[in-house]
Amino acid sequence: MELSSLRLRIDSLDDQLLELLNERMKLVKQVGELKRATNTIIYRPEREKQIIDRLEKQSTGLLSRSAIEAIFLEIFAVSRNLELPERIAYLGPEGSFTHQAAESRFGGMGEYLVLPTIHSIFDSVETGRASYGVVPIENNQEGVVIETVDLLREKELLISAEILLPIHFTFVSQSDSLQVIRRIYSKDIAFRQCSKFLREYFEEANVELIPVESTSKAAKLASQEPDAAAICSHIAAKLFGVPVLFDNIEDSDQNRTRFIILSKNFVNQRSQSDKTTLIANLPNTNRPGVLYDFLKDFNDRGINLIKIESRPLRQGSTFRSWFLVEFEGHYEEPAVQEIMEKYGSNLKWLGSYVRIA
Ligand SMILES: O=C(O)C(=O)C[C@]1(C(=O)O)C=C[C@@H](O)C=C1
């Protein structure tokens, strides 16, 4: 078939898609009105997952799960905006991986508040300046983000969802010839994680690697200096309009960062695959068996522990710790309830949400 007739058919399908999307939004608006009348939460990640799971099973065409997810997460983001526009704070600067994580869940139309520190994100959600806050909690190559973990204990916020982002670096420059490049800007951690690429392409060259505080700043500098390049996120390259010369230049394609979405007063309903995060302040961990007994309580109930991270209690000169604990399951499951009851105020529940990582 000819290009013009293929395009005509595409136009006709787009008309139908638009009509259906408008129909969908009418229903969403009604859901929003119901929710506002009953004062219930707009963002329901477990419902969104249920829709995507169902569509994936039903799909017989060319769309993969991630394609379905990309399209529908954007539709949900527009829906939520229509139900009630809510502000989302994320750890900046613009073009950071946290920005990319936030957009992957709250869409391109979200109203964002860009803040400079993890602490300021917690504060903005606590004071209600933002309804949600997006912060990194761990990277699978570098470990947990201590500031996030410590603030989860200190503050009274909940985790409503998690986001898993593959960390891909791009090499960007205004110059289309590598010979011209004299300087490469990036974060020190990004230089470390792209060392093979740098060795392969710039070992012999007289090029200076200049660490800056963020990969977005690197992209900005590269956008202004024709003989410079940057290693940055895709979103930063787009934001500062610097052409991408190489994609996915990281040494390991297994590099992932996990982000959490913080909020106040959030309760997810159970889904088929949930994760719970809590803080454990165990009484007197100097007595033999206290930590063992605690872990055994999970094992005895068939609960799969995913993570236990210890942090200093900072009580005088002791070496006592508190723990961030994550396990498979939802707060409402009887086995989890038993543990919560047994340890009472020694445990602080931080949220049960759809497990992605
Ligand atoms: O089902 C709901 O609770 C809705 O608000 C609708 C909808 C959707 O677009 O399908 C939108 C937002 C929620 O996060 C989940 C689903």
Automatic annotation (TrEMBL):
Per its record, how is this protein called by name? Answer: Bifunctional chorismate mutase/prephenate dehydratase
Q: Which GO terms describe its molecular function?
A: chorismate mutase activity; prephenate dehydratase activity
* Pfam families (UniProt xref): CM_2, PDT
EC numbers for this chain: 4.2.1.51, 5.4.99.5
Query: Where exactly are the transmembrane stretches of this chain?
Result: none
The highest taxon in the source lineage is Bacteria
Gene Ontology CC annotations of this record = cytoplasm
Q: What are the ACT domain coordinates in residue numbering?
A: 279-357
Biological function: Catalyzes the Claisen rearrangement of chorismate to prephenate and the decarboxylation/dehydration of prephenate to phenylpyruvate.
Q: Lineage of this protein's species?
A: Bacteria, Pseudomonadati, Bacteroidota, Cytophagia, Cytophagales
Q: Which UniProt keywords apply?
A: Amino-acid biosynthesis, Aromatic amino acid biosynthesis, Coiled coil, Cytoplasm, Isomerase, Lyase, Multifunctional enzyme, Phenylalanine biosynthesis
NCBIfam families tied to this protein: CM_P2, PRK11898.1
In its UniProt record, which GO terms are filed under biological process?
chorismate metabolic process; L-phenylalanine biosynthetic process
Protein source organism: Rhabdobacter roseus
Query: In this UniProt entry, which residues are annotated as the site Essential for prephenate dehydratase activity?
Result: T257
Q: Where in the cell is it found?
A: Cytoplasm
- Keyword match Transport: no
Pathway(s) of this molecule: Amino-acid biosynthesis; L-phenylalanine biosynthesis; phenylpyruvate from prephenate: step 1/1; Metabolic intermediate biosynthesis; prephenate biosynthesis; prephenate from chorismate: step 1/1
The catalytic activity, as recorded, is: prephenate + H(+) = 3-phenylpyruvate + CO2 + H2O; chorismate = prephenate
Segments forming a coiled coil: 3-37
- Per the database record, which ranges form the Prephenate dehydratase domain? 87-264
Residues forming the Chorismate mutase domain are 1-87
Q: Which SUPFAM superfamilies match?
A: ACT-like, Chorismate mutase II, Periplasmic binding protein-like II
Principal subcellular localization: cytoplasm
Return the PROSITE patterns for the record: ACT, CHORISMATE_MUT_2, PREPHENATE_DEHYDR_1, PREPHENATE_DEHYDR_3
